[in-house]
């Protein structure tokens, strides 16, 4: 997989449309979709060398595929990492990370506010394999430090979190991890590299759910780990080649083309989120708004510093708000009423789409957590999450007002 020759020091917007493998002999301007499970070999000896990974050349799509290579090159270029390895979904990227880095007896320190399925994976599957996890506060670095043990191999963070948009200090966690001989992985799904590049702050692995902003239009599942070439070649590729959680070429192509508009989408959707958050903060039926772009956000300054890959600090496109209510039942009823009145927004838990989505985390994305885990994560029954898309801001405000005004 020879990368396309490009000048050095290109900007992110340029890499987003240009980084890829070389064109085929036909000179296609839009990257080709190589929808094939295997590749014809020039001769038996070449096939032997390629299967032994002694010579470059594609053999079988579980081992590698040119469209997937282009997607990996483009994402790595955006994150600023040497390499990336694509997976079938964001969750399989996290599974691959654990399979590559951890063994029986190892220990993870993880924010208690990460994506619900990540907690299920660590507490359920990984613990069956003798890997334990300690969950700590997203924002209190002292708790992370106190949780580190001699067998801690991995610190795992996600920032901003879903749905409360808590920000962690990536640099502080990277320093902690490295002083303890451990590694730091950051799930960068919510900001995407257009807003935040965790490598700049010392992260060793950047996790993506390409399902979200990289695709950007809610079409396919995809995932990736961005890291050094050595980790891809020596640790992760041997696993995907065997275990098979690879990205399909079709999905890779969709994400590859989606990334071309990543920068302008992240800016436009963040602008809408900021406008909505500002308006919601002034709405009498709203108790509290969570959005890193608001000066009232507890880690606003950190967010503006960390989420500034595009030059200015940007709050990203996800926000959450709380309605009023005296009991968990009343809170849930009011949250449901606000959600059910929408006529424009989609009631769905996905995010990263051009279509604005609205959801009730406590009964959906975080519904499989125990009540204790949910309380620890701060997901109350009155909480509503909005992931801003590209609709006109006035239509979005009117849509949310429809339900809120009746409470
Ligand atoms: C959606 C999501 C994932 C999982 O990605 P899938 O592609 O759905 O498997 C992981 N982390 C975060 C932060 C997510 O939002």
CATH class of the largest domain: Alpha Beta
Straight-line distance between termini: 58 Å
The structure class reads alpha/beta
What is the domain tally? 2
Main pleated sheet: 7 strands, mixed
How do the SSEs run, as a string of H and E?
A: HHHEHEHEHEHEHEEHHHEHEHEEHEH
* Ligands bound to this protein structure: pyridoxal-5'-phosphate
Number of strands: 12
Strand order of the largest sheet: 1-7-6-5-4-2-3
Named CATH architecture of the largest domain? 3-Layer(aba) Sandwich
What is the approximate shape? globular
How would you summarize what this structure contains?
Helices cover 39% and strands 14% of the residues. It contains 15 helices and twelve strands.
Task: Label this structure with key terms.
Aspartate Aminotransferase, domain 2, 407 residues, single chain, 39% helix, 5-stranded mixed β-sheet, 12 strands, Aspartate Aminotransferase, domain 1, 14% strand, alpha/beta, binds pyridoxal-5'-phosphate, 7-stranded mixed β-sheet, 2 domains
